[in-house]
Every structure is written in structure tokens, then in C-alpha cells.
Amino acid sequence: MNPLIQFKQKILPLFIVSVLGCFGLSPTVQAVSPPPDGGYPGNNTAEGDSALFDLTNGRNNTALGFHALNGDTTGSDNTATGRFALGGNNDTGSRNTATGSGAASFNDFSKTDNTATGSGALTTTDTGFNTATGAFALDNNTGFNNTAHG
Question: What gap in Å lies between CA 29 and CA 38, rounded to an integer?
Fold first, then answer.
């Protein structure tokens, strides 16, 4: 047999094993340690200290940030992004969205379909179907079907 062919047959497997070994040991190829929080039962996702902390039966919730959606136990389809966003959610509200530090943070969200965007927007409400955009918009709201900007 040709000596070059013998050389290729011996070296090629060693080369493949050494390349795979280098990539397998590379820190950029390995999984993140510690692994991030994330996929929980019921299609729930949480990242942040005490995010979705009280959840029991709620489904399809996403909480990102310190105490985001902290009080939600059975609410579904909520999205909270930011420190204390929907953090005071009163257990059962569904289809609420809060983006921003403290957005919709002290709500009695047994109500549904509220949207708060901005720091402190829709901070306190006891109704549903409201949209608040901007810092402190619709703060201390008691009505429903309201929209506020600014």
C-alpha cells in the first residue's frame, strides 16, 4: 500500500479527535454555569431574584427582573420586564403586560388586559383594560378602559 495513504488513514482520525477535544474543552462552547433560570412548568419563564416566586398554577407567564410578577399565583399570559414590574400582582390577573421599573407594581390584577410601559406607569389600579405609557401615567387609577400617555 502507498505510504502516503497509510499516513492519511492513521493521522486523519487523530486529527478529528484532537480538534473535537479542543472545542469540547473550550469555555465558549460549554454550557453557562450556573445555568440560567427559565423554563418552568406551564410554559412559564422567570429570570431574576423572586421573579414569579409565588406561582402555583399560572401558565404562559414571563417575568424578567427583581421581583417581577412576584405575587402571581394563578394568573396566565402575563409579561413583566423590569424591577418590581407587576410585582404586586394580586394572584390571579391574566393578560397583563408591564415594562419598566415599578410598572404596574401595586396592582390588584385580579383584573385583566392592562398594559403599562414606563417607570411607575399604572402603579396602582383596581380595574382592567387600561393602557399607560410614560413615567407614572395612570398612577392611582380607579377607572377602566383608559389610555394615558405621558
Answer: 20
Q: If residue 7 lies in a helix (H) or strand (E), which one and from where to where?
A: helix 3-25
Running DSSP on this structure, what letter comes out for residue 115? E
| DSSP SS3 for 133 | strand
Rg, Å, the chain Cα set: 25
Q: What percent of the chain clears pLDDT 90, i.e. is strictly above it? A: 29
Return mean pLDDT, the chain: 79
Show the cell assigned to 110: 385580579
Q: Provide the grid cell at 122.
A: 399604572
d(CA 102, CA 123): 7
Distance between CA atoms of residues 111 and 36, nearest Å: 31
pLDDT beneath 70: ranges in the chain: 1-39, 89-91, 107-109
Which residue type occupies 83? R
Of all helices (H) and strands (E), which one includes residue 64? strand 62-64
User: Measured in whole angstroms, how far is the alpha carbon of residue 39 from the centre of its chain?
Assistant: 10
